[in-house]
Amino acid sequence: MSDNQVHDPLNFMRNMWGNMGFSLPGMVAPTFDLEELDKRIKDMKAVEGWLRMNLSMLQMTIQGLEMQRTTVDTVQAMGKMASEAAKSMNPDAPEQAPAAPASFFQMPPQAAPQAAPQSAPQAENSTLSEAALWPWQMMQQMREHMQQNAEAAAAAAATEAESKPKARRAAAKK
To answer: What does 29-49 look like in DSSP terms, one character per residue?
Structure first.
């Protein structure tokens, strides 16, 4: 009997389908057994749930990658705006080639050697302090710009106020 099972070519298929909860004859011909149909429905719903879970995880991964892309794009735009603001603050500064963005897993690009030799800690500290001060410098620029606008508005209001009393005096004399 066991020798007969070894030479049976469908034995492997029966075992494979049997482990999945489906019988081979049931896969070939439809069944009318309600319990078997309920079991198949239950199995198919389990597969559907698993596929929905995988779809949900895939959608969350895509959404996370889209958010990451938006964040990186925003950070790059902010860096570009900051460099343009710094360039407008000091238009006499020599043009510098934009540095390639450093990858998270790579070392940051090394600064070009300077004409005046500085010690390594001083150069690093000056670079770090410049990087840390850009928000402060931008706020100072905004404050100066607002102050200039306020002074211009006050001067315009004073000029307008001076012209109005003269018009009233002229009207009062008539």
So the answer is: S----HHHHHHHHHHHHHHHH
Number of structural domains found in the chain? 1
Are the beta carbons of 91 and 98 closer than 8 angstroms? Answer: no
In which domain, by residue range, is 169 found?
Answer: 129-174
101 located within any domain: no
Q: CA neighbours within 13 Å on the CB side: how many for 60?
A: 6
Report d(CA 61, CA 167) in Å as an integer. Answer: 71
Which tens digits make up the pLDDT trace of 80-120? 998 888 888 876 765 555 555 555 445 555 555 555 555 55
Beta strands in the chain (DSSP E): none
Regarding pTM above 0.90, the answer is no
Q: Tell me whether residue 84 is in a domain.
A: no
> In whole angstroms, what is the distance from residue 167 CA to residue 153 CA?
21
Average pLDDT of the residues of the chain: 74
**174 occurs within a structural domain:** yes
Task: Examine residue 156 and state whether it is found in any structural domain, yes or no.
Answer: yes
